[in-house]
Amino acid sequence: MALNPPLNPVVAEVxxxxxxxxxxxxxxxxxRMDAARDNGTGRAKLSCANWAHAFAGQTIADKLTAMxxxxxxxxxxxxxxxxxxxxxPFERFPEVIRKAVREVGxxxxxxxxxxxxxxxxxxxxxxxxxxxxxRDVIAMSTGVALTHDAFDAAMMLGVCDKIVPGLFMGxxxxxxxxxxxxxxxxxxxxxxxxxxxxxxxLYAQNxxxxxxxxxxxxxxxxxxxxxxxxxxxxxxxxxxxxxxxxMPSTAFVHxxxxxxxxxxxxxxxxxxxxxxxxxxxxxxVVSEKTIVNMIVALLATGGSTNHAIHLVAMARAAGVLIDxxxxxxxxxxxPLLARVYPNGSADVNAFQAAGGVAFVTRELAQAGHIHxxxxxxxxxxxxxYFKEPSLVDGELVWRDGVSESLDRDxxxxxxxxxxxxxxLRLVQGDLGRAVIKVxxxxxxxxxxxxxxxxxxxxxxxxxxFKDGKxxxxxxVVLRFQGPKANGMPELHSLSPALSVIQDxxxxxxxxxxxxxxxxxxxxxxxxxxxxxxxxxxxxxxxxDGDIIRLDAEAGVLTTVGVADLTARPLAVRSTANAEGxxxxxxxxxxxxxxxxxxxxxxxxxxxxxxxxxVGGHTDTPPNPNVVDRTVDA
Length: 633
Fold this sequence. Notes:
By secondary structure, the protein is of the alpha/beta class. The chain has two domains: 9-188 and 223-323, no CATH class; 424-602, 3-Layer(bba) Sandwich (Glucose Oxidase, domain 1), CATH 3.50.30.80. It is 37% helix and 13% strand. It contains 24 helices and 16 strands. It has an eight-stranded mixed sheet. Strands 2-1-3-4 form a four-stranded parallel sheet, sandwiched between helices. A hairpin with a 4-residue loop joins β15 (547-551) and β16 (556-560). The protein is globular and about 75 Å long. Residues 611-633 have low confidence and may be disordered.
């Protein structure tokens, strides 16, 4: 019997609103995918010369299979490099995939590669200003790879921060095909996250030397696999699972294990099965209900705030229009089921051991917080994602996931959550609209009213900290960090300093039009402020000493005692800051991106940067209404 619990009324209401808002863009997308499907498989349209070129470098056996003309060919888009620990295992995945599909009478080819930046390497460095834009480059690279039109299905190999959203967006341009995502899994646990945070805080205060810091960091990031904290990369993997694009419970299986290889092979064979059946095309898997499920699961697990941006762009690639009001309202009724660092002390390996994504999916589905009647690569309905894989005598078998959490300090049922709402909130007022992740912020720190200290660069803010100028009640405002200004870098370098100020007993908050990601931690941070300062947003009018109120409980971000903020002249961005973000480290290659990129709430993307009404696109602006968080759900 199919699972069909009563749906939470707020989830139903938000879903209905998204469907109505997206009516035109979704219909346009489905029309284009239907036309591509009806145009026939790629190999049937290619000339003999085209097809010969496509297989010239393959083995004799694969050439003979391809010459048959009726055997599926799987296109693999690979984000492999060995700069990213999470992507290093992908070096050997293509051969696992080729071998698997040969066993079922098909072929597979690496259609193309994509860039894959490591934000952990570029944090605090100029290259971080290319990080967000790399997502759209990855989407475009995926389009280039698949545009050879020689494939019956596709596989996406990617894990980390911008890579999965980019692969997702690019693959949706070929949504007439079935698409299966295959991750590489997390590295084994290193030193405890609390110890890592402690050493970082000591280093920020010059109480330990760089050698001590390096030893700590190497103890944290030590082998192939995803970093083990619950940031954007691991949030990606959870969402690909809840979206039905992974094989079930694939996300957090370690690399270089028999089970990981078996899951990768099974994913390849599943892509072939879908190609033969004509079912499970990505356009049908990724629906309005799927997007809602992804948002809810992100909220229920305290996932990365980067997805307040990425999910908007990802949904738009499927013709689905969402905004921060939707996310905020869903958050108000989503139970927080997980405590994973930085929202707790455990890492993703402990989360997986306690029950993992299978437990979260079943709990959310049975409590009516997600849509169960969705299409996945496993078929109709979400129930397949309640199961977990194991190897028995070398064979992959599936069993029901645990029915109860094995560690209630990490994972809880929907009936007894850590919190009755999710970890993300919308804050707004005369400073614009922003998001704040409160799941790691103690209730007593969620309301801050203090004088502003205004900066243009992380370096200036850190210098003020080192000079002792910020040890007071303060709202640190860092502006000219939006997508138009400098590509909207993550600002993790400030996290240890802000934590130190808070630990000294001062009220401290952070307000920026930049990003902070899933590692924003225990200090209240209103991020992604939109519109951004460079576009004339309100942050450009703020002055040192202005009283700013950040009230995450009431959803407020405003100045206090300023009659008309916009009556002030706009601050002028310093020439050094502007020129510094325009050149060097490849930034000059992205000048056009900065000119046309959409706002943070519109996904900070160049892929859909077209005027409303052009080419069938009729994007709706964000809902300006304040969400009533007291609604009785």
